[in-house]
């Protein structure tokens, strides 16, 4: 995953996501913005993303090699090199974010990588790795790429490979909630319903936040002035999935995805007023911090989210 520049091309199988979420860092109300950070070294630090006050949820992207016996690998583009240990200082940023009330998830998967789960036992092994390397676990034998700070949860952006055993993975992860930390489970399915890679995991009903990628998928996204397919798909997701909150995932700039960008004024005047009536509405998810920096999108929409 040397370059992320082609992660958002027009093939719906190859995308990544982003997300957003809701809550209350910024708006006093119902929704909030979740954002993906990690795939461009020129997007500022994690602490800076949190210090904007605009993002109650930040997904750190990506752990893009795991499962089936592979040695797990994380990619944070130009930020630092997880394998060499140069990302352990992110623990300072992680604590700074959490002190502001921002929830941080490790996003696993993505549009470029090598990952799959080969069995229920493998799902258990990967869940233990995630617990010990990124969450509240402490194991002398497991290296922690982001240092000793514990993230709040795990985000699934499964876009490649088999769909199998992710339901087991999220059940194992959720079972660690009893060990002194709530483990948030979030996910970024693509909008065609049901999601072909994550459908069975979502059916467990244990996701806290689901930020659906309403982009790179013309049948269920906004297209040229027409909100029909987007709203129809939103309604299907919000009435079909047993998650605590659902977010509308969008590109933060026209160049951030192959298709599906919604001008800020269209989102705030035509779409937010409709989707906010859903009891499951959590807010907006954006891909990505880098693109948001270029466009200023989050600043344009945050008061309406
Ligand atoms: C279990 O996970 C570790 C990563 O923590 C990996 O290196 C190892 O190969 C896995 N074991 C099996 C049997 O898959
Ligand atoms: C919007 O898209 C829907 C679904 O493709 C279509 O049926 C409808 O006619 C379109 N509306 C307009 C105004 O173009």
Keywords for this structure?
305 residues, alpha/beta, TIM Barrel, 2 domains, 8-stranded parallel beta barrel, binds 2-acetamido-2-deoxy-beta-D-glucopyranose
What does this structure look like?
One of its GO terms (biological process) is chitin catabolic process. It catalyses: Random endo-hydrolysis of N-acetyl-beta-D-glucosaminide (1->4)-beta-linkages in chitin and chitodextrins. The chain is α/β, with parallel strands linked by helices and 305 residues long. The protein has two domains: 30 residues; 270 residues, Glycosidases (TIM Barrel). 27% of the residues lie in helices and 20% in strands. It has nine helices and eleven strands. An eight-stranded parallel barrel has the order 2-3-5-7-8-9-10-11, surrounded by five helices. Strand 9, helix 6 and strand 10 form a beta-alpha-beta unit. Helix 3 crosses helix 4. The radius of gyration is 17 Å and the shape is globular. It starts with 18 loop residues before the first strand and ends with a helix. The relative contact order is 0.18. The N terminus is likely disordered. The structure holds 2-acetamido-2-deoxy-beta-D-glucopyranose (NAG) (2 copies).
